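Summarise what follows for lecture notes:
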Amino acid sequence: MVFNLRTFSFTESVEDDPIPPKSFSLKELRVATHNFSRNNFVMFDWHDKVYRGRLADGSLVTVKRVWCVDQWKEKIFEAEMQVGSTVSTHPNVLRLRGFCRTKKEHLLVYPLMINNSLSYNLRERPDRFARPLDWTTRKQIALGAARGLAHLHNQGNIKIMHRDICSCNILLNVHFEAVIGGFSIAMIMHERNVEKGTIEWPTRMPRRGTGVSISSPVEENSADSGSDSQSYHRYEDVYVKTPRCGSSFFTAPECFHTDKCTLKNDVFSYGRMLLELISGRPIIELHVLAYKEILSLEEWLGDFINKNELGRVMDPNLRGNYVEEEAEQLVRLALLCADGDPSVRPKMSDVVTMIEN
């Protein structure tokens, strides 16, 4: 197989890579977390526990504790270590601070994001009704997440596929700026795991128990459509063959049906995340609302835009405090990124430009 290195290149390191992750002792991390106190417990992450702590230098961190290490957990740990050691410094990307490896458990240390995750702020924070994320902050989060993902996709010659972009993995720092985290299933793309070729998947999938087919408007009008028989969409790109990853509602259709994952899968996930940011609702809830009207999510949202009823999409906690023109542009951008046709989705660098302009 021949790779076009002028358009897609690979490397194993970054020339301006900062200080590598520090090797901590288990004793240091026990002290930092008060012996992994229940009071410092933050959350479960892929069956492992995450704690907050304070290092000897005073810096606040989160410590991901992987215990009862088996072959699968060892593989995930190694992958997260590799990605964490490869990502160059960027304000919108969470960088691995350090690690600890013992025979019985592995630990990963990241900077603490004081304002938790986007998901938490939209749906779990106790005062979210009285003090919701305002419109300016949401625009800032949309731009920051786009910048971070664009950096992962093209930091020099390195390309990192996140594979799990969702509101849970968009973390918020002290200024409520977006920082991309959650690298448990991220992958570095290189010659050994990448192929180039055609991806083929069904463009029209009937809903279970009904005769109704659902697809995006682009897929409905594609050259492969137009008959009652099953039609297929085809897309050529560089991809990694990998088991399906992340939530099905954030996974692009070509990846969902073929397990061939491209960078455009991250773009799709980003678009779905934008819809949650705008509406304040989980993406599954939006799907259910569209399903009740026998529409695809894209058709359902498009109808609101065409009928000038965008307010029905917006987070009610905003109480109308948003710029309607900006909101419509952001919804349109979300739909573009989450289009069923990957060739329509923009690159994340272009998404950054669109939001900035």
Notes: The first strand starts at residue 22 and ends at 23. The first helix runs from residue 26 to 32. The CA atoms of residues 244 and 256 lie 6 Å apart.
